[in-house]
């Protein structure tokens, strides 16, 4: 059984760390004939005589971010919409994105879930497993399949975040977002 990796949604504001091939040590650009410290010229062409591949899209263009990164941004925007009112309650909730739900979590007659809650562990007695808060995991592919365009996807992600957060707090979604369920 292949389990999808769960990504935590975070914002990376700068280039943290070195890029592959830009630092020292083994890797592309640091072997014999790469021109790193010997007098040999660095390669300007690949083995087919074409130029080396570079960035296809400059960083300022929206296409620079992958679809998964754009979806992560939608989740962050949904959480940011709730933060002004629910900052203290949101402080211990972690948000994550998974491509699809695990096969063992879906029943035969149940629809594909859009998200799930992973309950935290309040037990602090074991130092190997410290206490953790709840985690809301949103499933990217089922959400993308239900939305027709970017605006609808943004609203759907927000509604799912509101529903799951309301379940954690044990309240109705209308308490979390007074406009929940309004069409428009």
Description:
With 184 residues, this protein is α+β, with helices and mostly antiparallel strands. It has a domain at 62-176: Zincin-like (2-Layer Sandwich), CATH 3.30.2010. Helices cover 30% and strands 9% of the residues. The chain is built from four helices and four strands, in the order βαβββααα. It has a four-stranded mixed sheet with strand order 1-2-4-3. The relative contact order is 0.13. The model is unreliable at 10-36 (pLDDT under 50).
Write the layout of secondary structure elements.
Blueprint: E1 6-8, H1 67-90, E2 94-98, E3 115-118, E4 135-139, H2 140-146, H3 150-169, H4 173-176
Parallel strand pairs: 2-4
Antiparallel strand pairs: 1-2, 3-4
Helix pairs in contact: 1-3
Q: Report helical residue fraction.
A: 25-40%
User: How are the strands ordered across the major sheet?
Assistant: 1-2-4-3
**CATH top level class name of the domain at 62-176:** Alpha Beta
Q: Mind describing the biggest β-sheet?
A: 4 strands, mixed
Count the helices. How many?
4
User: What is the H/E string?
Assistant: EHEEEHHH
How large a portion of the residues is in β-strands, by DSSP E?
5-15%
Secondary-structure-derived class: alpha+beta
């Amino acid at each position: 059984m292949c389990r999808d990796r769960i990504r935590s949604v975070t914002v990376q504001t700068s280039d943290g760390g070195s890029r592959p091939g830009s630092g020292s040590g083994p890797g592309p650009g640091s072997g014999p004939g790469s021109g790193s410290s010997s007098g040999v010229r660095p390669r300007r062409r690949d083995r087919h005589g074409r130029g080396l591949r570079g960035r296809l899209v400059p960083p300022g263009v929206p296409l620079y971010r992958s679809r998964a990164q754009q979806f992560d941004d939608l989740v962050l925007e949904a959480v940011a919409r709730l933060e002004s009112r629910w900052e203290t309650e949101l402080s211990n909730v972690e948000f994550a994105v998974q491509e699809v739900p695990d096969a063992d979590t879906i029943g035969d007659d149940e629809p594909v879930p859009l998200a799930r809650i992973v309950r935290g562990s309040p037990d602090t007695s074991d130092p190997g497993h410290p206490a953790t808060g709840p985690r809301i995991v949103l499933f990217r592919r089922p959400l993308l399949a239900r939305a027709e365009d970017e605006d609808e996807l943004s609203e759907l992600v927000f509604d799912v975040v509101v529903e799951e957060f309301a379940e954690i707090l044990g309240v109705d979604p209308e308490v979390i977002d007074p406009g929940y369920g309004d069409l428009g």
